[in-house]
Amino acid sequence: MTDPAIIAELRAVLGDGGLLTEPADLAPYESGARYDRGRAAFVARPRSTAEVSRTVGLCVRHGVTLIPQSGNTGVVAGSTPDMSGTQAVLSLDRLTAPFALDRINRSVTAGAGLRLSELNRRLAPDHLFFPIDLGADPRLGGMIATNTGGSRFLRYGDVRRNTLGLTVVLADPDGTVLNLAAGLRKDNTGPDWKQLFIGTSGSFGVVTECVLNLEPLPQQTAAALLVPASPDKVPDLLIAMEQALGFYLSAFEGMSRNAMAAAFAHAPSLRNPFAGGAIPDFAILTEVSRSWLPRPGEQPLSAVLEDVLADLLGRADPLLGDALVGRPEEMWTLRHALSEGVRQSGKLVAFDLSFRRGDIMRFIAHMKAEMPKRFSGITICDFGHVGDGGVHFNLVLDRADPRAGDAGFEQGLRDWVFEVAVAGFGGSFSAEHAIGRRNQGMYARYTEAQLRRLAAGFKAATSPGPLGAVEL
Amino acid sequence: MTDPAIIAELRAVLGDGGLLTEPADLAPYESGARYDRGRAAFVARPRSTAEVSRTVGLCVRHGVTLIPQSGNTGVVAGSTPDMSGTQAVLSLDRLTAPFALDRINRSVTAGAGLRLSELNRRLAPDHLFFPIDLGADPRLGGMIATNTGGSRFLRYGDVRRNTLGLTVVLADPDGTVLNLAAGLRKDNTGPDWKQLFIGTSGSFGVVTECVLNLEPLPQQTAAALLVPASPDKVPDLLIAMEQALGFYLSAFEGMSRNAMAAAFAHAPSLRNPFAGGAIPDFAILTEVSRSWLPRPGEQPLSAVLEDVLADLLGRADPLLGDALVGRPEEMWTLRHALSEGVRQSGKLVAFDLSFRRGDIMRFIAHMKAEMPKRFSGITICDFGHVGDGGVHFNLVLDRADPRAGDAGFEQGLRDWVFEVAVAGFGGSFSAEHAIGRRNQGMYARYTEAQLRRLAAGFKAATSPGPLGAVEL
């Protein structure tokens, strides 16, 4: 139980509604989006950088561990307290100001507690958006802490690429505020310190404000489902599409037969677009888009896509088996249904892996061959972002399988997959979910000792107080 | 003079041609591209990461300061030794291997000593290029150390955005090699350490290899010279062009009348494209490009540009005064002639500034008004990268002016310009040239003390030996 004097001090800083201590009030902040469940000593809800600074400084001085929590949509237990009841949550949910659009700079300065959907709603009248696209609706601070990627990475890159500036509160006794928020697009006057607060799970500091790059909102979109001639043709198909369509290409998302079958089984309203309902081994949702309205004399974007696909279908050495051009919304509905469909289909053991782009299909083929030799009764339901090397590699067991609740079995399975992915294929054990308690062990296992020493040294020198769910 | 025992040890590591000690051999490494001139104790020319590691380790153990030198095309005295004769040059000019193109990953792993032109020559058969465009022909290591921007930043970003991995040798007694070269496009498994070796002038370590993102080579290009209705309309003109042309837009370069006049005066073969030869107050070279060959049914790119410009010329509230569509090569010849023309036109005091995009024209207007009140007889010959906020703010004095050789006068002028740019307009004192001895003082003046402490702490903990021309 937290010292009542600390609670009183925090209440004075944070005001009414700014400090929660009642169990019923704490509950929403104690559970994560998917897996994690913990107990919070209290929840602090600052409304400004100054309040974050005072909260953090006070907690550092009293040795209270703060877990920064943004939209709490992450899936690696990075934003919830552990079960000890001694950790407190620093919620960003009231830190939604400022909101300052700089139309000429094509940037916005926003509070880290703003939701992505709300940001984009406010930007739409200016035909701008923050181009990170994902299923969940996180708040900005968490997107920065995890360096979110998403489905349009191929065109727009990740949060890192689109972050022009940050305001950060360090975990030191003063709650020092680092101002890295000039918002210049070009500036080489020393180390780009903001980079170390992106993708580091809030362990080096609390992001309170950000300056984000904005992009013109797409005004025309076309999409197609591609069936590769065979799964091993996928990499060359990607290259062919990139060569033909350049920066028109805004998504190139892979979907395995098993993942699509799970989606169709669990979302009956979902239309199966394949001829005769025969789900192919692998399909790709590809999207092209551009930011201007149709102009007289200009070929419609859907016609551009159709022409390119016709060329590909006509190649002597076929890469493409079939192509279905259709309504983008319908295709994305299928794509977005995969995650829930797979989860519904059994006991899920999920991985968020990435590879060099040429290695994804090789890794999947390898796993399909090796899995039955190692682990029986496991269905591989992969899907993901072929265009940037990411794959949501999902393994599903029948819920009736006695191994489904066996933590030791799951650990053995996870260890093996990580070992093949990271050591065998040079991949990443966390492509876009960053580090949380769930993959803290992998950080220790797969990060070279000298890099772990660098991180510990930076933490100790910069932001030494107890902050965040992970230790880097 | 360097201890002969050190020289002998280095010669054993580096082999024939790998260690230069004769004055005639040292000379090419002692002078910079524009300003700086120093004296080298010796020049080490390693051919591999292992040789760099042994060289750096040995020099750290003996306290010899190494100045990493890449293409030596920088203009801030960041890659040459000082006049003491005690500093040695670590040249990357033989470190041109490996060269490994990963076509599917659209990346290349290359030695830091490879020249940009040679890299792109080797990539051209695969219709790929490293999309950093600039007048000089640097080697890759220097581009990383300075985080080069260039003229297509608006489309492709800087070196940072296009760097997927690095191999770095730290300045410690072991010459520790950091392997940050997995080359994944998506990876969030801890701090992205490579970021601290980009744009830090080689002071935190020597980059020996890099994994670079490649882009499809443009196959169609069109360009126009735009004359804004007035200079203050430039920001809205940029936004209008971005809204109309999206990612087609690959350059939006500003050119002042004085800079253009200097180019025409000093390059007589340069054609003056303006009606009646009347150079406007300000002009913009804009370029659109796309990576595919013309397709049947698709409007030519030049027609797209012409349509957009016709729309802009027809607006009720005019942003655009005139627009000349022409051959891109000819327009770029003018753009590239500015730098030399300005330099030839008198005693040059040059600045590489950047601002939020909306502040560039305000800053220039402010300077035009204030300069005559502060300093007489100075011609402002600005040009630069309006699309990303960068401006090469050049001040020219008549060479006959007695102040032209007066270091105190120049310092006063520089101090005032920096103060207005950085303190007054929130700009950067080094947009794309990074830090060298020439602007070391500005780093100390304009970097907050806590950030300087961070840098010194990181340097001491990571790479403590004497390395590089600057101190961060």
Task: Please name the defining characteristics of this protein.
Uridine Diphospho-n-acetylenolpyruvylglucosamine Reductase, domain 2, 472 residues, homodimer, eight-stranded antiparallel β-sheet, Alpha-Beta Plaits, Uridine Diphospho-n-acetylenolpyruvylglucosamine Reductase, domain 3, five-stranded antiparallel β-sheet, alpha+beta
Please describe what this structure looks like.
The structure is a homodimer of 472-residue chains. By secondary structure, the first copy, chain A, is an alpha+beta fold. Chain A has four domains: 4-91, Uridine Diphospho-n-acetylenolpyruvylglucosamine Reductase, domain 2, CATH 3.30.43.10; 99-216, Uridine Diphospho-n-acetylenolpyruvylglucosamine Reductase, domain 3, CATH 3.30.465.10; 220-338, Alpha-Beta Plaits, CATH 3.30.70; 346-433, Alpha-Beta Plaits. Chain A has helices at 4-14, 23-30, 49-62, 116-123, 140-146, 153-156, 234-245, 257-266, 301-313, 328-344, 360-374, 407-424, 440-446, 449-462; strands at 19-20, 43-44, 66-69, 88-91, 99-102, 107-111, 128-129, 163-169, 177-180, 206-213, 215-216, 220-228, 249-256, 282-290, 320-326, 347-354, 379-380, 383-385, 390-397. In chain A, strands 12, 13, 14, 15, 16, 17, 18 and 19 form an eight-stranded antiparallel β-sheet that branches. In chain A, strands 5-6-10-8-9 form a five-stranded antiparallel β-sheet. In chain A, helix 1 (4-14) packs antiparallel against helix 3 and helix 8 (257-266) crosses helix 10 (328-344). The radius of gyration of chain A is 23 Å and the shape is globular. In chain A, 54% of the residues are buried. At the A-B interface, helix 7, helix 9, helix 13 and helix 14 of A face helix 7, helix 9, helix 13 and helix 14 of B.
